[in-house]
Amino acid sequence: MKIIGVIPARYRSSRFPGKPLVDICGKPMIYWVYQQAMKVTEFDKVYIATDDERIADACQKYDMDYVMTSDKHETGSDRVAEVATKVEGDLFVNVQGDEPVINPEMIRQVISIFFEDDSVYFGSLKKEITDPDEIQATSTVKVVTDEKGDAMYFSRSVIPSNIKDGKLARVFRHVGIYAYKRDFLLKFASLPQSELELGEGIEPLRAMERGYKMRLKETQYTSIGVDLPEHIARVERVIRGEETL
């Protein structure tokens, strides 16, 4: 199986324009994400997928492989799908471009799903959360899975609600790393965005509304997503070894 890592990176962002190029310890954020992905020996190649020449220039400066993509894509998965039309591969892993300290073991975990069960075509990770504020936050995507680990639903609301008395059900956060077999990825990208996907702002619901399954593995690792400029200071502490995750 040929496994390709893809890091979607777009310059335009409503909350944080130019985020992939923000300076972190003297280098652009996308550099740090790429370095973490390159530690995954299962990858045959790693590419940055971008539609912006400024990001392409940074890739050239730091000797990072990249693919130029359309500026019309609505989601990162759609951008990864375009890479799959240009690059040979069997399994494509979407590594989020705003997680500069992602643990390579998390990427290996999502890849392992496909070796444990050959019938899986769409995979991701989940992590248990217990902090009440994180559970309530709409920025936290929650997921409920069945006994096999297949997703039943994703929401920014609290699921399960745990509204009944007695033993509480565990709550899991969706970890935003995706892996797809090539044929499914191309099919996924050909589907129009669905009502639930748009309503929740969660990509996998586009597939689930059409009856496709997504397998999630529980991870014990955590990462830091850079959503706002104030998140950078903590990332720099981790990179400098002043803080551990």
Main sheet overview? 9 strands, mixed
Please provide the count of β strands: 11
Query: Uncertain regions: pLDDT < 50 for 5+ in a row?
Result: none
- The Rg value, from CA coordinates, equals 18 Å
Head-to-tail CA distance between termini: 32 Å
Compute the number of helices.
9
The ordered H/E elements are EEEHEHEHEHEHEEEHHHEH
How large is the share of residues in beta strands? 15-25%
Helix content: 25-40%
Q: Give the helix/strand class.
A: alpha/beta
The shape, in one word, is globular
Mean pLDDT: 93
Provide a descriptive summary of the structure in words.
With 245 residues, this protein is α/β, with parallel strands linked by helices. It is built from nine helices and eleven strands. Helix 3 crosses helix 6. The longest helix is centred in the middle third of the chain and has 13 residues. The chain is globular and about 55 Å long. The model has no long low-confidence stretch (mean pLDDT 93).
Blueprint of the fold:
Blueprint: E1 3-9, E2 23-24, E3 27-28, H1 29-38, E4 45-50, H2 53-61, E5 66-68, H3 76-86, E6 91-94, H4 104-116, E7 122-129, H5 132-136, E8 142-145, E9 151-155, E10 171-181, H6 182-190, H7 195-200, H8 205-208, E11 215-218, H9 232-239
Entry keywords:
single chain, 245 residues, alpha/beta, 9-stranded mixed beta sheet, two-stranded antiparallel ribbon, 9 helices, globular
